[in-house]
Amino acid sequence: MNSESSGSPNQVGEMLAGADLEIAHELQGRIRLKGPFLSHPALDIPFFEAYILAIEGVEDVRINRKASSIVIEFEGNFDTRDRILSLLAVPPQEAISDQGYTDTRIEADVSGMIMSAAVLLALPILPMRLKAVISWLSVSPVILEGATTLVTKGLKVKVLDATAVTMSMIRRDYFTANAVHLLLRTGDYIQHTTETNSDRLIRSLLKPETGMAWVEEEGTERQIPISEILPNQLVVVGAGDLIPIDGRIEHGTALVNQASMTGEPVPVRKEVGDTAMSGTVVEEGRIKIKAVGVGSETATARISRYIESSLKTKSITQRESEELADSLVPLTFALGGVMAVITRDLRRAAAVFMVDYSCAIKLSTPVCIKIAMYQAGKKGVLVKGGQAIEAMAGVDTIVFDKTGTITTGQFEVTDCIPLVEDLDSDGLMALAASAEEHYSHPIADAVVRAAKEKSLVFSDHSEVDFIVAHGVATYIDEKRLLIGNEHFLKDDEGIDFSSVPEIKSRLRNEGKALLFVALDSRLIGVIALRDTIRPEVKAVILRLKELGVKRTVMLTGDDHTRAMAIAESLGLDEFYSELLPEDKVSKIAEFQANGSRVAFVGDGINDAPALMEAEVGISMSQGSDIARATAEVVLLEEGLEGAALAREISVKAMGLIRTNFGLAVGINSSILIGATLGWLSPLVSAILHNTSTVGILLNALTGVSLEQNQVFKER
C-alpha cells in the first residue's frame, strides 16, 4: 500500500473530473482506455475494478498502472460500450483511497525468476570471477530483503532465506545459491499469484444491481443510471418498480412492499411526507421521492467496501498460525547457528537455514480461507472473510426468522368454506376474487390466483373501496360485499360471527390466516390461506443436522398456533412465537449464555440487531441493505440452500487447515532433522522444503470441495 494521501475533497473532485480517459484501442467486445488518472498512486485499483465489473455486461477488467491503461472486456454491443464510457467519464469518489494501492510483487517475482534461470543456464560456461559477480548481483535482492527485514521486523523467514543464500555464496557454491534463489522466487510467485487471483475472483462474485431510474427536472422526466442520481433530485417510481434510493415522498401515494427491509409481509400505504427506503417495491400507485441516500451510500460502494474488508480480515486460526510460524523462525536460526559453531560446516548450517515452517503454515491457511470463500461464492454465498468461515464451522445452533426466511411471504389458498346453502366453494372464491383483483396485496393476489387457476368467472360490481389494513368493500347486484379480517367485519361492520367459532379454531390451529366474506350484512364464507413455506427448508434443516448442527430454532412474531404448525411440519427442534425484534436478540443472548454458538438467519431491517448479536449472521438474498451489511454471510441466490452450503464449506475449510498444519509441521520437521544430521545438502533441503510447500498449497487449492450428491446452483 502506498502511504501518499489522496488530498482534500476539492483535489479529489478535480482529479476525478479530470480523469480524461481516452480510447487507445478498440475491438468488438474489448476496449482499452488510457489516462494519467489510472497511474495515480491514490487510485484504489481493487475497488475501481469491482466498480467496473458491476456494470451490466462487463465480463473482465485489467488495470495496468505502469502503462496508465485499463482493458475492459464486455458483451459486444453498443449499449454496454456506451454505459461503460458514460460511467467512466467521471469515476466514483470511492475510487480514490486515503492510502492508495500498489502491488508489484508478481512483476518482481517474474523478473527474479527470469534472472535466476538465466544465471543458472550461464554458470557452466562462465569463468569463475564472472560467476561470482553475476551471482552476487542475481541474489542481492534476497540478501538485501533479509537485511531490511532483520532491521525492521526482527528474525523472520526472509532472514533465514538471506542467511542460507549468503552462506552458499561465501562457500562459492554459486549453483546452489542461484538455484535456491530461483526456488524462492518461484514460491513467491505461486503465493502472490494465488492470492491475487483468489482475491480477484472473490471481488467478481457480487455484482451489484446496476439499472436505470426516472428523475424529474423542471417538469420533465428523463431516465438516468441509478448511480448518477444526486441528492435532492426527484426520483419517480411507479407500480412494479424497485425504489432505488432512500428519501422522502414529495408527491403521490402508493402501496409499498417493505418485506425486504422490515419483514412485513403486507404492503403499507405511503403518502407525502413518509420515508421511502431503497430496496422496497411499489406495488400500486405512483410517487415522487426526494433522494437522500446516494453517493458513497450507494449499493455499489457499500458492497465493494465490505468485499474489500472481508479480504483483509484474518481469522483467529490464521493469526495463531502466523504467530506460531514466526515463533519457530528463531529456533531454526539458533539451530543453524549452533550447527555452524559446533561442526564448522557452513554447508550443514545452510541446509538447516533452508527449512522453515512459516511458508507452508502462513500460506496454506489464507489460501484455504480464500478458496472456501470463492467456492461458496460460485454457489451463491458471500462469506465475509476468515473469521466468518471459522465461526460458521463452530456454530452448534442455527436460528431462523420466519417471515421472508422460512416462508416466502407469498400466500396460497388452502380452504374455501361457504357458510350458506346456496353457495359452493367455487362461487365463494369467484365472489371474493371479483373484488380482490383490484387490490394489490399478498392475500388478495393469492385469492385471485386461486380463482384464475380454476378458470372461475368473476362477478360484475361497483367501484371497490379499500380500507387500509382491514379489507375491501363493493356492491354486487346492489348488495354490499365485504372481504377482510374478523376485526373489520365483526367490530367495524357488526357482522354476526356466531356460526364460525369451531371453523376459526380448527383453521387457526393449522397455522392458517383467515379471510372472511360477508354479503348484505351476512357472513357467507371463510377463506383460509397459508404463507408459503420455502420448499427446500426441510431438506436444509436435515442437511444442517448431518453437518453437526445440534439445534435448529425458529423465532417469529406470529401467533403461537401458527408458529407451532410450521415448526412441527419442518422438524425444527424449538420455536418461539409472538416476539418483538428486541425479543429475538434476547433469545439469542440467552442461548449464548447457556453455552451455545449461534448463527441467525434473517432478512429484514428489524433482524439487524439479531444478526449482530449472533456469532454468525446470515442474510437472505433479498434482505435489506442493513441486513446484508451486518451479516457475516450473505446468500446471493433465492432460497435457504446457501445456509447449509456455508456450514459445509466452512467445516471442510477448517478441517483442511488442520490437516495442512499437521503436514507442514511433520514434513518440515523431518527435513530439518535430515539437514541437522548432515544428510541433506542446502540445495536438496531447499528443494524438499519448497516442494512440500507447493504440495501443501496445491492441497489447499483443491481440497475445499462439496459433496457430489449436493446440488447447488453455480453463479
In short:
This protein is 49% helix and 20% strand. It has 25 helices and 25 strands.
Present the secondary structure layout:
Blueprint: H1 9-17, E1 22-27, E2 30-34, H2 45-53, E3 58-64, E4 69-74, H3 78-88, H4 105-122, H5 128-152, H6 157-170, H7 174-203, E5 212-217, E6 220-225, E7 234-238, E8 246-251, E9 254-257, H8 259-262, E10 268-270, E11 275-276, E12 281-293, H9 299-312, H10 316-343, H11 346-353, H12 358-378, E13 381-383, H13 386-394, E14 397-401, H14 402-406, E15 407-418, H15 425-436, H16 442-453, E16 465-467, E17 471-476, E18 479-484, H17 486-492, H18 501-509, E19 513-519, E20 522-533, H19 537-546, E21 551-555, H20 560-570, E22 574-576, H21 581-593, E23 598-602, H22 608-613, E24 616-619, H23 625-630, E25 633-635, H24 641-676, H25 682-703
Parallel strand pairs: 14-21, 14-23, 21-22, 23-24, 24-25
Antiparallel strand pairs: 1-2, 2-4, 3-4, 5-6, 5-7, 7-12, 8-11, 8-12, 9-10, 9-12, 13-25, 15-20, 16-17, 17-18, 18-19, 19-20
> Describe the biggest sheet?
8 strands, antiparallel
Structural class by SSE content:
alpha+beta
Number of strands: 25
Total helical elements: 25
Shape assignment: elongated
The percentage of residues in β strands lies in 15-25%
Low-pLDDT residue intervals, each spanning 5 or more residues: 1-18, 205-209, 295-304, 708-715
Helix content class: 40-55%
Instruction: Round the Cα radius of gyration to an integer and report it.
Output: 33 Å
Give the rounded overall mean pLDDT. Answer: 78
Distance between the termini: 32 Å
